[in-house]
């Protein structure tokens, strides 16, 4: 699924910032932050989906 144009601009902006970064520690911090944000988003999506389906999230996702 393609991203909306506004999100594509945001992705491109952050990609350029990553490309300019030469500090390995800063890149590691960025990667760790993005990993946490990605997992938080996945968790929120699971909870929202379970809520919409009126299911107990623990039964569906084991968490």
Description:
With 63 residues, this protein is mainly α. It has 3 helices and no strands. It has helices at 5-20, 24-52, 57-61. The longest helix is centred in the middle third of the chain and has 29 residues, at 24-52. The chain is elongated. The mean pLDDT is 89.
In angstroms, what is the radius of gyration? 16 Å
Give a quick account of the main beta sheet: strands, pairing sense, barrel closure.
Answer: none
Mean pLDDT across every amino acid position: 89
Global morphology = elongated
**How many beta-strand runs?**
0
Strand content: under 5%
Q: What is the number of helices? A: 3
Low-confidence stretches at least 5 residues in length (pLDDT < 50)? none
Sketch the topology as an H/E string, one letter per element. HHH
Question: Could you tell me how far the N terminus lies from the C terminus, measured between alpha carbons in angstroms?
Answer: 27 Å
Structural class, from helix and strand content? mainly alpha
Helix content: over 70%
Question: Could you provide a short overview of the structure?
Answer:
The protein has 63 residues and is mainly α. Helix content is 79%, strand content 0%.
Give me some keywords for this one:
mainly alpha, 3 helices, single chain, 63 residues, elongated
Structural topology:
Layout: H1 5-20, H2 24-52, H3 57-61
């Amino acid at each position: 699924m393609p991203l909306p144009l506004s999100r594509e601009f945001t992705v491109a902006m952050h990609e350029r910032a990553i490309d300019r970064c030469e500090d390995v520690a800063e890149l590691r911090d960025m990667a760790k932050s993005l990993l946490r944000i990605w997992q938080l988003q996945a968790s929120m999506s699971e909870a929202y989906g379970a809520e919409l389906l009126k299911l107990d999230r623990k039964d569906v996702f084991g968490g």
